[in-house]
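Two proteins follow. First one:
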Amino acid sequence: MNTEAETGAENGIEQISEQETEESKVKKDWYVVHTYAGYEKRVKTNLERRVDSMDMKNKIFRILVPTEKEITSRGGQKRTVEKKVFPGYVLVEMVMDDDSWYVVRNTPGVTGFVGPGSKPVPLSEKEITHILRSVGVVERKPRIEFDINQVVRVVSVPFKNFEGK
């Protein structure tokens, strides 16, 4: 025979385990957020602050402004400049629900999510993997296609044009 307290405790345990399984079923995806031109870094900073202040760390995980380094030449001097890969856009890894949508959508500088109408569409796994690799977030594995004792020519300084095995 179970008393009411024991039954309640058992139900409480069952409810917690159901919540845990629901959380593990929730899938986080990458979404593209449209911003005002030139506001990408400011939106990232504002959104990170809102995530902290509104306690959304369990629903909004990473915020990324994809950049790549570009070498420019001005006045005969070479400079390395970070260039935005997708100007006007920020990538957000999040669990999409009403609360997380509200936090992101009402961040200053955000004009909306990318998708048809008002429904955000997540990036595919293939798309996000390609983007993260191209901006250096996910490391690429170097491909070495040399055979042992194959003669190679060095193409960069300091041993430029030297040959070796």
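Second one, unrelated to the first:
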Amino acid sequence: MAIKLIIYEDNSRLRQSLKLLLGEGKGFDVVGAFPDCDAAEKQVHKLQPELVIMDIDMPGIGGIKGIKIIKSVFPEVKIVIHTVFDDDNRIFECICAGADGYLLKNISP
């Protein structure tokens, strides 16, 4: 059974690429892809993902606050940060907010 996934990424090309790359296989069912976390609580409630892929820097509610919002209401949802930052402090801040892991954007598909 495919894992239900939501993507939060403000770069529209990258968001579309992730949606296509992850949605074509049998492992993931991309149920939503959004440019910000402003409505994250409602979106997660409606779409019921098991996994969220989250950018850190986005307009409006950023990724770190988005993690806190999602985890406070849906602690069972796994969140993986997808970021260009390999700064230990930023990643540590995400993990402290509740992220379950991270991937750097400069890795190959």
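SUMMARY FIELD: The longest helix spans residues 12-23. The first strand starts at residue 3 and ends at 8.
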